[in-house]
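quick one before i forget lol
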Amino acid sequence: MPATKRQLSLTDFGKKKSRKNEGEHAERGEEEGTSSNTSISICELPGKVATREAAAAIDANLPLEKLLIATKEMRPVPPRECVVYWMRMEDMRIEDNRALTLASQYAQKHSIPLIVLFIISSGDYESHDRSPRRIDFMLRNLRILKTNLEDMNIPLYVTSHQPRKQIPNRVISLLHEWKGGHLFANIEYEVDELRRDIAVTALSGDGIGIEAKFVPDKLIVEPLSFSTNSGTQYAVYSPWLKKWTEKVRSKPGLVEESEALKPNDPSIRKKREFAALFDSEVPELVPGFECHDQEKMKELWPAGIHAARAIFDRFLRTEARESQVGDSSPLADGANESSKGTRIQMYGGDRARCDIDSSSRMSPYLASGVISAREIVRRTMEFDSQDKGIDPDRNKGPGSFLSEVAWRDFYTHVLAAFPRVSMGRPFNEKFSNVVWETDGNHFEKWCRGQTGVPIVDAAMRQGATQGWMHNRARMIAAMYLSKDLMIDWRLGEKHFMRTFIDGDLASNNGGWQWSASTGTDPQPYFRVFNPYTQSEKADPTGNYIRHFVPELKHLKGKALYNPYQNLDKNTFKKLGYPAPLVEHAEARKRAVQRYANPGQK
């Protein structure tokens, strides 16, 4: 279907039948077969959005509550031949891992071996728009984990399985095959994953001698563990942060390190039924998710917890560098240690700067669980001497950084308490009928970094080449798509997930809905970033734009940030750079009018 300029509202989405509109309403991407390695069509979205009724139904019957109840009501079973820890792609570490610790303790207590299971599910990756870079990062981390576990006589059994709806049955069949009586796993908070784990508890609770335990690990504070005075879940960050801070201060155990993993007895290698598990191999790739810039990703995002710790140590102890804006290893030589001007100490004032390595670069490692959020918080508190309790004070660098870590908790709390946001619905339903433009040419140029707005194009090209984008750049690019171009934010959300190495549904969705003014604690719809003034704040030296938009590398001052307005026509034409797709002032008026009158053009 060719792209057209027909205006579109969310009501159009209900006109096309899909499985979600007829029965079970799962996350967007339910249909298997949508490749994560293909470009996005402007017309791809309609079948990916649940109806308002379906969204309300799942909000009224929270999957997380159902899983917690099912786990609590599991009947105890006696130990059998082994215990199994089911690792998923959000908890890829063997240190400070709640479920793995419980599995290890149980194995040691009953003198039985521990087995680690990992299931590769291309159907899930397709449905959830996982990028080839994220899948490659997963495989690279798995290889490191396999070696580390084997040194402890613990097998990591890696297997692939399709269709994804049958994964619960596959897990139970493996426990039967291994004569395992206990399964431990950390909770994943997306709707489909919660339903999958609920199905596992149902299968294991049928008197078959298996006890499944799903425990919180991803966040500092578990979702649904506190509420407003009226008993509702928070939808605004500031009061939520106050409550979150109180919770962490009153319960220091929330950030304590989990007990270390204990090795299996070497005799496991002599048992025929377990010895073969050590021969399981991590595949070189997952078909359909070939990472074509694998070597660059290895340099920019080295795998493993030791790499993650070394990168974070640089954030704590070294100064920011302009040279790190380009395609450089986060562990490249030349970093200067400092006692007063480190990146985290300067974070409060520098965090919005894209022209230096002002950020921690921890997002890929947190998204894949290569390092725990607890360790990040502990090390930050130790660095800042926060011995009286956590202090996310935005007026100080370390405190400002901790408040950003808290945002990760907040958006996952929202996802768990209002699961409709993972089904393509806006959190604020009053904006469900906002009329969007469907200019496929505009969307394609935004994806390729050819909008004619230098800061937006620099951001999009960084994402395309590095598999990652500075947070301020994400905000600018997202608001430009959803406000200036007036293109549905869900298309941008999908593009980021399919491009970035740190794709996380809760954080990505939360960020996009904030920028599009449709989410919790949103940027008011009448506030529309001026990308030209934003670029002067985010890129004061101009080095970010010059690096990623080399057509403009010789420009300075206002001409760099807005060459179309500040150069004569002949000089601009010689740049070989496109004119802006829209005029910002006029685009802003259109956006304000559309949001003020949802459903009207």
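fyi The chain is about 45% helix and 5% strand.
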